[in-house]
TrEMBL record:
<dbReference type="Pfam" id="PF14008">
    <property type="entry name" value="Metallophos_C"/>
</dbReference>
<dbReference type="InterPro" id="IPR015914">
    <property type="entry name" value="PAPs_N"/>
</dbReference>
<dbReference type="InterPro" id="IPR039331">
    <property type="entry name" value="PAPs-like"/>
</dbReference>
<dbReference type="GO" id="GO:0005576">
    <property type="term" value="C:extracellular region"/>
</dbReference>
<dbReference type="InterPro" id="IPR029052">
    <property type="entry name" value="Metallo-depent_PP-like"/>
</dbReference>
<dbReference type="GO" id="GO:0046872">
    <property type="term" value="F:metal ion binding"/>
</dbReference>
<dbReference type="InterPro" id="IPR008963">
    <property type="entry name" value="Purple_acid_Pase-like_N"/>
</dbReference>
<dbReference type="GO" id="GO:0003993">
    <property type="term" value="F:acid phosphatase activity"/>
</dbReference>
<dbReference type="Pfam" id="PF00149">
    <property type="entry name" value="Metallophos"/>
</dbReference>
<dbReference type="InterPro" id="IPR004843">
    <property type="entry name" value="Calcineurin-like_PHP"/>
</dbReference>
<dbReference type="Pfam" id="PF16656">
    <property type="entry name" value="Pur_ac_phosph_N"/>
</dbReference>
<dbReference type="InterPro" id="IPR025733">
    <property type="entry name" value="PAPs_C"/>
</dbReference>
<dbReference type="InterPro" id="IPR041792">
    <property type="entry name" value="MPP_PAP"/>
</dbReference>
<protein>
    <submittedName>
        <fullName>Bifunctional purple acid phosphatase 26</fullName>
    </submittedName>
</protein>
<dbReference type="GO" id="GO:0055062">
    <property type="term" value="P:phosphate ion homeostasis"/>
</dbReference>
Amino acid sequence: MLLHLIFSLSVFILIDNGNAGLTSSFIRNEWPSVDIPLDNEVFAVPKGYNAPQQVHITQADYEGKAVLISWITPDKPGPSQVRYGLSEGKSEFTAEGSVTNYTFYNYTSGYIHQCFLDGLQYDRKYYYEIGDGDSARKFWFETPPKVDPDASYKFGIIGDLGQTYNSLSTLQHYMNSGAKSVLFVGDLSYADRYKYGDVGIRWDTWGRFVEQSAAYQPWIWSAGNHEIEYMPYMGEVTPFKSYLYRYPTPYQASKSISPLWYAIRRASAHIIVLSTYSPFVKYTPQWKWLREELKNVDREKTPWLIVLMHVPIYNSNVAHFMEGESMRSVFEGWFVEHKVDVIFAGHVHAYERSYRVSNIHYNVSSGDPYPIPDKAAPVYITVGDGGNQEGLASKFRDPQPDYSAFREASYGHSTLEIKNKTHALYHWNRNDDGKKVKIDSFVLHNQYWGSNHHRRKLNKNHLHSVILNRASTAQL
Ligand SMILES: *[C@@H]1O[C@H](CO)[C@@H](O)[C@H](O)[C@H]1NC(C)=O
Ligand SMILES: *[C@@H]1O[C@H](CO)[C@@H](O)[C@H](O)[C@H]1NC(C)=O
Ligand SMILES: *[C@@H]1O[C@H](CO)[C@@H](O)[C@H](O)[C@H]1NC(C)=O
Ligand SMILES: *[C@@H]1O[C@H](CO)[C@@H](O)[C@H](O)[C@H]1NC(C)=O
Ligand SMILES: [Fe+2]
């Protein structure tokens, strides 16, 4: 007990390496990075013939008034109907969905159901029921508050989760956080670490594993490299096949042409999901879509502008170092111009937060070719620390670069608790061997409504009157 206390205390000693940033000295007493065995109770198949399993929900429209419910039945298609309503045990409404299935090498998926619930009221608890007779299952979800600049809302951020005991610890800690919705930054099941029919089997176990959260609150999906599943040795060459069948997104609501990139508005946040592994250079569909979507962002209605992507742009880990450079060179200018508040990424199996920096001055012939402090730039946060079977990315580059504010190689998740249009509380929570410990916390000030908003508005009015005065002078 005493030893444990001493150990816990040592956790808070941080190394100041001379730069402004901190590298945590915490060394994790790690559970082995192996996947939980198939027969473990976290993967248990629900009781009853053809009972719905792998139930998960996501936001299904642009504004948060629709939910897409998805589940799998193993034995026969069965109904795609959802019965739902505002009181428990009494379903006032029904919605009809659709069913599909796919093969992956010699694996055949169960029957994948998707059902769209529309015209929901804001800020209410809905109860829903799926499946037939004795095998029917009941769940609930809460709709977000209406899109409003002062709506408060708590998001969780999870990345690179996988299905190990560390993943389970992350998920359990997240579920105690009180957050209402997950921003998932890619790399879901790590099923692609398996071969042949086991790929599909590990997608199924992952679906049953996350159901405990994902059936009750929306997970906002983005895709990582482990979703690509380009496996020519099995003849499986269609990128993102399993992911696209299983994890639909509301891309059409934001006029995207691909489920891999899209945007939603939820409470006071405008969330943009990008795909690192889809074309994004100038003139591609994703580039054109993002250019238009940024014009749709109205900070008067949704003050918080959040971007999700898989590969971090500012990463000082040895793992995946500079992999974000291609996307940085294409999009960073826009992120600064549009004053994005925060960008969440995964991919690197560790935690890292940047200062507000940008590297947009270099243009081959001249300009500073390195990141500099920039108040208009986003904070970049890497939470690829969900706990998958590849283990930790434990080696950071030394010395810590100036752009890096805090970094630690251990497992955890983050929460972003939006209070109002100016303030959000951010926490990174380490899975401290079974206990939740808040390590990296700060107040995120809104980039649009922050302290100088009032002044900016005045300046704008001032400028306006100067121009008017000039115009009137010119007329004289
Ligand atoms: C999908 O389900 C249908 C209807 O049960 C079945 O006939 C078909 O063989 C299934 N497809 C695959 C790829 O297994
Ligand atoms: C699928 O193929 C693998 C490798 O060829 C084999 O080991 C496995 O038994 C097959 N599974 C089924 C369900 O046919
Ligand atoms: C390149 O950067 C320099 C210095 O910032 C600037 O003066 C010049 O106009 C830029 N050239 C182009 C083509 O953007
Ligand atoms: C916004 O929230 C912060 C943090 O809770 C609080 O200090 C501040 O007073 C709030 N602002 C307004 C206008 O309510
Ligand atoms: Fe990744």
